[in-house]
Design a protein that fits this description.
single chain, about 400 residues, alpha+beta, five-stranded mixed β-sheet, 7 strands
Length: about 400
Amino acid sequence: MLRKEIPVLMSVCEALEAQQEAIVRYWVSTDTVINVLDKHDIDLEWFKSEYASKILNYFFGVVKQVKEVGDCPVMAAFLQMLKEHDISADELFDICTHARKSMVSVTFDMGIASKELFRDISYVFDLNFKGVLQQYSNTVYRLEKQIAQEIEESKKKDALMFQQARLAQMGEMISNIAHQWRQPLSMISAIVQNQHMKYSLGKLEASFFDKSTNDIKDILKQMSQTITDFQNFFEPNKEKEKFCIENSITKVLELLKDDLKKENINIVRFHYEIKEEVLGYPNEFAQTLLNILSNAKDALIANNDREDRTIHIKTFNDENNICLSIRDNAGGIPEGIIEKIFNPYFTTKEEGKGTGIGLYMSMQIINNMNGTLKVENSELFKKSAGAKFTIELPIC
């Protein structure tokens, strides 16, 4: 059957097959093929011996009708190798196209080139490789589509987890704000009652009234600033920016100070005039600090020792990094679970009291800032054991 389709190629098949080494040399020396192989770390000589020569043997076997079209074990191995090296369908097309061009180039060198011979060579190449190209293209397309879908689903899950963690933090922060507002509201109430009493007795002097009014304004300004801090804290940063982590620590401690004081938790802070900045997301970083400090607070409360509850915060420079360690004396994390605490939805708290995504979210935030977050158990001044979280971020 092929004899009728490719008469010219069959008439010069033996002479052309004798030039197989030259065809391979042309094939693997073209810039396009070299670039594809280099890009995917495929050794040139290995490609020549393991695939290029054997594929041409198959080509000439089909022309001489000693091999069947589509029955090429080396082609299956070739496609498997391409998949392992993540070569795209377009790159495979380039490789096959240059194999045909190389054969045509050799026919010019031999002085046997003709339009009919080019047509015959193209016919056999299409016959053998068109189906292979189509199959590989479909396989790669399906794989890429599947990967794209999985990535998209993963993004949606992460976004949902971040939202859940943020809502949990907001609930806790609202509780903190409510606690912070009780005292200033009581003060305002006392001032207003004083004004009313003096007015009722006819002793309300202008100076007293002005001072009382200014005191109320100052208190309300402080309460308003609390809301502003709360809003800024949960406004996500869209772009990376330079910021000082010392400012972030101060900001978070200010938000937590009343809650920590209520639970008799002492903050001991060491910092060494760190002025260098890091590049990242300051609000998200502050949420990371809030997660770690809130977990330390909960662990200390669960420890039931109100006389000795301490959190140590230390920042220092380490070559090209800024390091921040946060450690408590709540007894530490059991060895059986310390490796799992950054896993999503893992929590040791009672049902309804923990989402299990705060530390997972914290890890993602620090990773996105090209930093590291790790945890270990350590002793605090050889007194009592506790958990120690360490953050390292590159200096900007």
